[in-house]
Structures are given as structure tokens and as C-alpha cells.
Amino acid sequence: MTRAWLAEAVRRIEADYNRSADTHLIQVDLPHHDGIQLYLKDESSHPTGSLKHRLARSLFLYALCNEWIGPDTCVIEASSGSTAVSEAYFAKMLGLRFIAVVPAATAAPKLDAIRFHGGEIHAVDDPRTVYDVAQRLARETGGHYLDQFTYAERATDWRGNNNIAESIFAQMAEEEHPVPAWIVCGAGTGGTSATIGRFIRYRRYATQLCVADPVNSIFHRHYADRAAVALPEGCASRIEGIGRPRVEPSFVPGVIDRMIPVEDGDSLGAMRALGQVLGRRVGGSTGTNLWACAQLIREMAARGERGSIVTLLCDGGDRYGCTYHDPAWLAESGLAWARGEAEMAGLLG
Ligand SMILES: *Cc1c(COP(=O)(O)O)cnc(C)c1O
Fold first, then answer.
1. Any idea where the Tryptophan synthase beta chain-like PALP domain is (predicted)?
2. Side by side, which strands form the sheet with 182-185?
3. Which of 114, 128, 165, 296 could form a disulfide with 196 if both were Cys (CB 3.0 to 4.6 A apart)?
4. Is the shortest distance between the CB of 214 and ligand 1 below 6 Å?
């Protein structure tokens, strides 16, 4: 590969970053809890609409600087979700072909979003084969498999470089409790929790990291018992982006102080209640995060503790218009969300 091409590719990604503003940290009122403040890091405001914009940028820079990607490399990922959308965006920026390997059952709006950014779709019938198929396509095309689940934790600069953790602490600086008692996030690749957990320890903050995990996810079971590495067949979370059937290589349990399992119905109830308060729809994993925050808030209040909690608004509700935000889909889902919505509405209003 020519160094000139590489330099130009890196420049384009850095220029995109340089043109971008930081994502907002939004304070959410807790009218019944005077001494406790709740904040949402709004990752929906990235150019591709989710926290996966950060991951895609890091994966591309990592692969470029390793000289794994050149001017004629076909870039491949196993993802039906937000990662493929963000990666398609960066591939297009660099003039590279991008193929997303997706389960055949993937919802049409997501495929549309990948195609909108110029990505191609390679559908497979058995969802478990997406990793192997992505690897095979990379071999056949002489391409590069970005492999988010392996590289998420190491592609991100966890010590700083304005990663999500450094940004949160900088934005908290003028708050009543600038060092959060808790930061709460979910785990899909595990990359975000690894970055935040490492950063907290590196900077020697007292903050604790809590990961909110769907009940039907292996991560919280693995956290409790390192021998648990895979869920039984057919056991799956309904919350997109988080909760995995296998322990992903980027999941770093050692930097997590606590995990809270959350029922899918409660995630969607919390998602709906938060949407009402914010005046705009959010995604399901944001509801999962909020549900775990509510538990921590109740515990802090019971102990008479004061302090702040920061969590993530991972993506907006637009991509879930015909699932979580469709009353017919919700009714058919069999998920019990109404009780959780009422409970969360009580906390926020
Ligand atoms: C990927 C994702 C997460 C989890 O982030 P990781 O860094 O992959 O663990 C949470 N919510 C949404 C919507 C996501 O797409």
C-alpha cells in the first residue's frame, strides 16, 4: 500500500472527527430525589445515530494503521445493526467496498440504513454462521473482516483521546457532584464498558461501573460465574445492541463493579417513560440502562447517599419504528412493559 493513500484515509477520518461536536450530556430531573442527579450521554447525536459511530471510527483507524486496509480492500463485518451502518459510512468516506453479513431475518429498515450509506448486504439463513461467513468472504475477496466483537476493546484509546469516558468526566466538571457515584452502560461487544472501566481505574476515580444486561444474556451469568460461557440454544434477548448468547472476546468483566440483569419488558417500559420525559423516542438499550439506574437511585436514597449517576442514551427510536415503538408489535411481543413504564414514569415525573 502507498503511504500517501494511507495518510489521506486517516486524514479523512480525523477531519470528520474534527468537524464533529461532542455529544451532549443531558440532565434528567428526579423530582423525588433531591440529592441525586441523573445524566444521559446522548450518543444518538453522532452522524450515524448511535454510539457505534465511535466504534466504527476506532476500528477503521486501528485497521488502517495496522495496514490491514488498503485502497482496494473490501471491508466486511458480521452485524445486522448499528455497527454496520456506521462502518458503511466510513467505508464510503474512504471509497471502499463494504459488505455486512446479516441474518436473513434482519428487519428491512436496518438493511435500508446500511444500503443508504452504500453498504452491501450478504444474508445468511442461520444467524450463528455470520462470523464464519464474514471470515470466508474476507478470504475470498482478499478483504478485511473488521470483527467488532474481537477488536472493540483494543481499538479504542482507553487512556484518553476524548473517548466516551474522558468526555463524560470533562462534561461533569461543573456539576454538583462532578465525580459520578456510578456510570451505567450496557454490553454488546463489551467495548464501551471496557473503555469506561479502564479509564476510571487509570484516572483513579472512585466511580463504580455498572453494566445493565438483559436477563437472557450470557454476560451477567459469566460475571457471576466465569465458567458460564454460552446460553442454551434459543435463549435470546429482545433488546437490540446488547445481551449476547456467547461471551464476546471484547467483554472485560474485571473492570465492572456490578451487573444488573433487566427483563426485556422492563427495558421497553423504561424506554417509553423516558421518551415521554424527553419528548423524543429512544432505543431499547437506553431503557435497559435507565432501569438499572433506577435500582441504584433507590439504593442510594435508602442509604441517604447523595451523588450523581451517568448513563448512556445509546441511540434514538427511529430505527425501531416498526418494532419497539409500534403498538401492534408490542402487543404481539408478549413482553410485559406496562408495569415498568408506570414505575419509571413515577421516578421521572
Ligand atoms: C452496541 C450497542 C450497545 C453496547 O455497546 P458495546 O460497546 O458494543 O458494548 C448498546 N446499545 C446499542 C443501541 C448498541 O448498538
1. 23-315
2. 25-28, 36-42, 307-313, 182-185, 208-214, 258-262
3. 165
4. no
